[in-house]
Specification:
Number of helices: 7
Number of strands: 4
Order of helices and strands: EHEHHHHHEEH
Largest sheet: 4 strands, mixed
Structural class: alpha+beta
Number of domains: 1
Strand content: 5-15%
Radius of gyration: 14 Å
Distance between the termini: 12 Å
CATH architecture: 3-Layer(aba) Sandwich
CATH class: Alpha Beta
């Protein structure tokens, strides 16, 4: 089983997910996309399994700080990819990749369901 958790270390939701995975003794790789960056291939891969409306956090401060024209330009996956690569903080966190199955965000119930399959 291969598990990668994408996010930024100081995000509270990412911290909760990392703590949960450690408590369940799940080995995982953590990818800090602020320090390690993101490639177009990674984000495009996410979009094969998740909608851009799930990945782009429209409630966060990064989104709210964008000019209205920039927000309005997110009309397809290519525009969403460009935005996420330009502003990784706009991505809802964490993104969990468990053997090619993806989930966004964290809740105990959500992770229980993912890992008890």
């Amino acid at each position: 089983m291969t598990i990668t958790l994408y996010g930024i270390p100081n995000c509270d939701t990412v911290k909760k997910a990392r703590t949960w995975l450690a408590a369940q003794q799940q080995e995982f790789a953590f990818h800090d996309f602020k320090k390690q960056g993101l490639s177009r291939e990674i984000v495009a891969g996410w979009l094969q399994h998740l909608s851009r409306d799930v990945l782009v956090n429209r409630k966060g401060t990064t989104w709210r700080a964008l000019p209205d024209e920039r927000k309005a330009a997110i009309v397809d996956d290519d525009a969403a990819i460009a935005l996420m690569l330009e502003n990784p903080s706009v991505i809802k966190r964490p993104v969990l990749d468990k053997d090619g199955a993806y989930a966004v965000g964290f809740s105990d119930a959500q992770y229980q369901q993912i890992f008890n399959k």
